[in-house]
Design goal:
This is Hemerythrin domain-containing protein. InterPro entries: Hemerythrin-like. Pfam families: Hemerythrin (PF01814). It comes from Sulfurimonas crateris. With 147 residues, this protein is an all-alpha fold. It has one domain. The chain has five helices and no strands. The longest helix has 34 residues. The protein is elongated and about 50 Å long.
């Protein structure tokens, strides 16, 4: 059994690896980066939805905090979704400079965001939700991404 913090932190690492693979593909050929982009964008969206549709809701119900850390994380998810969309548009336009401008901004935002989640929010969630940890991780594992 893995804890909420372990499960989501491990998934951050997986998304980071997909991000690096996407950047490597784009450096070689912006046209050839589409498949790597699609995988990164899809898996990152899945991660966001696991948090937003499961963990954040469970945390908010347990603590009553709806305008605290989860509200800020949702706001940052929106910012990251916009940057990911911009990167997809740059690939379609074959605009390597725009792609790497957006990816650099996204990388900085992701690093800061992931650090806040891993060091603060996931720790708080684990403290408040430890009795439900296995059920919550199972729910996140079984999620199907809504488009």
């Amino acid at each position: 059994m893995s804890s909420i913090k372990e499960y989501l932190s491990r998934d951050h690492g997986r998304c980071d690896e997909l991000f690096a693979a996407m950047e490597d593909a784009a450096a070689k050929s912006i046209e050839g980066a589409k498949a790597a982009y699609d995988e990164f964008a899809g898996e990152t969206e899945r991660h966001f939805q696991m948090e937003e549709r499961v963990m954040f809701l469970e945390f908010e119900q347990k603590t009553g905090m709806t305008q605290g850390p989860t509200a800020m994380m949702r706001h940052e998810h929106t910012q990251m979704r916009n940057l990911i969309s911009d990167m997809g548009k740059a690939i379609e336009a074959k605009d390597k400079d725009k792609f790497f401008g957006s990816s650099e901004t996204l990388m900085i935002l992701m690093q800061q965001h992931n650090m806040k989640e891993e060091q603060m929010l996931y720790t708080m969630a684990q403290q408040h939700l430890s009795a439900e940890s296995e059920r919550i991780v199972d729910m996140m594992r079984s999620m199907i991404v809504e488009q």
